Amino acid sequence: MQSPRERSEVRPRAGWMVMGKRGRPSALEVCRVLVVFLSLFPSVSLQCKILKCNSEFWASTSNSGPEEEFCTALRAYNSCVRRTARTCRGDLAYHSAQHGIEDLMSQHNCSKEGPTSQPRARTSLPPPPPPLLPGSQERSDGPEVCHYERSLPRNTSPPNYTHCGFFGDPHLRTFGDDFQTCKVEGAWPLIHNKYLSVQVTNTPVVPGSLATATSKLTIIFKNFQECVDQKMYHAETDELPAAFADGSKNGGDRHGANTLRVVEKVPGQHVEIQARYIGTTIVVRQVGRYLTFAVRMPEEVVNSVEEGDNQDLYLCLHGCPANQRIDFRNFRARAAEAQSAGRTRSSTGTHGFTYQSAKAKCKERLPVEDLYFQSCVFDLLSSGDINFTMAAYYAFEDVKMLHSNSNRYHIFEKDAFMSNAAQRGKDLLSLFLINLLAVLLWTECCTVHL
């Protein structure tokens, strides 16, 4: 058996299919093409209805039957997925389903040609697994390799846990504690590594405004050793499931299945996904019409990237691209200036809130004027939606639950300014080195010519 630390070096047996036990050889190529496509056309998946295809297929196969019936349902599933091709080209769930269908057809020797049938409605979800007692060592508790902290070598320092949050209009707190306000309309990847992938879809909050908010979230947990099967969790506005897309609440039939669990905290409002085999906790909420995301993840898992994968596009790791960022300090300054001039509405788009009334409303839930407070003010001024006050409040509550350093709960504007200044310094240094190299090459060429 491999040592736990080797897990970040060994490629897990994961692909991009929803079902199936082994990734396809082209998974990396598919991922690369998908990421480039998302960066060029980020809004393609706004009308994607792949979740309906998934649920219909799983409903039609919930009860075991003859192989012919399974193949018939699989062909119907394939037809449904193909009908979504135009609107789902940039969606992780769509590409996952495509590869899953191919794998299942191969495994069950199903022909692509043949009859299809309408899926039967599922009568009820399977019962949830029994809760684990503290210290339980039953079979469902799984082997040590399925418990991240237990699998670490003895006498090693505790793992360093990091946090990423995404909420509001939207605001991003990266694994490096950078805090940004972004546009990022359409489908964007938050996380992608050897163990899981997370994608969000953001839609405009107010017509004509740069502000967007998350209306759809897809998480794919890739299969890992004897611990868990590949699972997909998908949420949309007014659909915050208490189970994975296949109706299950844990990681499948393997020995460590219960080290991946969906736990419903508040029906339709708050779900927690515990992935103990990678030491990760994810919190998904619906606040008002939109979703929020927060994660606690070991640094080792964050950095377990696929070989040759370009991580620059993944928001939780490197933040939003520079051309997608919004400077809400300027927005706030214009709102304050408009109010001082006696205007309650202006080109800044206050939508019923003045700068002072927005501050007063946010102060009720966020007494410390940090960037969570400032993001709340920005959201009220840009949208007028009072629910964004609670989105910022819950985002900060999730930080207190998930962040490993209590001294870093609050982030202030000076922290963001120093972070941006440091990045600008790096950019200037890179530019200087490139120019220096060009001068040296030009000098060398001239010397040789002479």
Task: Provide the gyration radius in Å.
Answer: 24 Å
Helix/sheet category: alpha+beta
| Separation, N- and C-terminal Cα atoms | 64 Å
Low-confidence stretches: 1-46, 118-140, 344-350, 416-432
Give the averaged pLDDT, no decimals.
76
Task: Supply the CATH architecture of the domain at 146-324.
Answer: 3-Layer(aba) Sandwich
Give the full name of the CATH homologous superfamily of the domain at 146-324.
Mog1/PsbP, alpha/beta/alpha sandwich
CATH class of the domain at 146-324: Alpha Beta
The order of strands across the largest sheet is 8-9-10-11-1-2-3-12
Q: Report on the biggest sheet.
A: 8 strands, antiparallel
β-sheet strand percentage: 15-25%
Q: What sort of overall outline do the alpha carbons produce when their principal axes are compared? A: globular
The total of beta strands comes to 12
Write the CATH fold name of the domain at 146-324. Protein Transport Mog1p, Chain A
**Could you give the order of the helices and strands?**
HHHHHHEEEEEEEEEEEHHEHHHHH
Question: How many individual helices?
Answer: 13
What level of helicity do the residues show?
25-40%
Domain Repulsive guidance molecule C-terminal: 160-404
Keywords: Autocatalytic cleavage, Cell membrane, Disulfide bond, Glycoprotein, GPI-anchor, Lipoprotein, Membrane, Signal
Region (Disordered): 107-144
Family: Belongs to the repulsive guidance molecule (RGM) family.
